[in-house]
């Protein structure tokens, strides 16, 4: 087989792999967006509408959202750094197991802190609701958590809210 034929075959395979990768990413991205109810860009909008929060409750709620975002911003940034560091170990032929383990422990700790802060945040949100709203809150909270975990659309990167 000539060098020219080999080059054509390899180029074709690379193009095919790139197209397959792009297709996979699109399906993944579209699947993640399905977790978010139509018409809602932020979990906060969803909560306000689904619970029919009045103006006073909305102000209290948005104060809780802003507080939650400020509490979690540094943790999320730190978590991103540790995850980047962890996955950069893939490029090392012999990544040290103790480094991997310690990085995973730190990631786990940061995730635990974030989950606890988010748990307490939603506990506080529930307290600003009247009894009827609390019943509705209990029905929608799992959907809200899915929205929070899916994160905001990429163009809204300022932060997650809920």
Features:
162 residues; mainly alpha; Four Helix Bundle (Hemerythrin (Met), subunit A); 2 domains; 0% strand
| Structural shape | elongated
Number of helices: 5
Structural class: mainly alpha
Q: Over all CA atoms, what is the radius of gyration?
A: 22 Å
Helix and strand pattern: HHHHH
- CATH class value of the largest domain: Mainly Alpha
Helix content: over 70%
Characterise the protein shown here.
The protein is mainly α and 162 residues long. It has 2 domains: 1-34; 41-156, Four Helix Bundle (Hemerythrin (Met), subunit A), CATH 1.20.120.1490. The protein contains 5 helices and no strands. It has helices at residues 3-33, 43-51, 55-88, 97-127, 131-150. The longest helix has 34 residues, at 55-88. The radius of gyration is 22 Å and the shape is elongated. The model is unreliable at 154-160 (pLDDT under 50).
Q: What is the structure about, briefly put?
A:
With 162 residues, the protein is mainly alpha-helical.
Give the topology.
Elements lengths: L2 H31 L9 H9 L3 H34 L8 H31 L3 H20 L12
Helix pairs in contact: 2-5, 3-4
């Amino acid at each position: 087989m000539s060098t020219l034929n080999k080059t054509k075959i390899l180029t074709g395979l690379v193009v095919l792999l790139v197209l397959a990768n792009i297709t996979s990413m699109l399906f993944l991205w579209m699947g993640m967006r399905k977790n978010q109810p139509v018409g809602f860009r932020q979990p906060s909008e969803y909560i306000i509408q689904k619970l029919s929060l009045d103006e006073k409750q909305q102000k209290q709620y948005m104060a809780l959202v802003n507080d939650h975002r400020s509490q979690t911003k540094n943790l999320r940034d730190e978590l991103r750094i540790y995850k980047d560091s962890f996955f950069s170990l893939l490029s090392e032929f012999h990544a040290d197991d103790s480094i991997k383990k310690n990085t995973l422990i730190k990631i786990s700790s940061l995730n635990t802190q974030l989950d606890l802060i988010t748990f307490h945040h939603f506990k506080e949100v529930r307290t600003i609701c009247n009894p009827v709203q609390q019943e509705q809150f209990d029905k929608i909270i799992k959907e809200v958590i899915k929205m929070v975990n899916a994160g905001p659309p990429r163009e809204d990167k300022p932060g997650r809210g809920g």
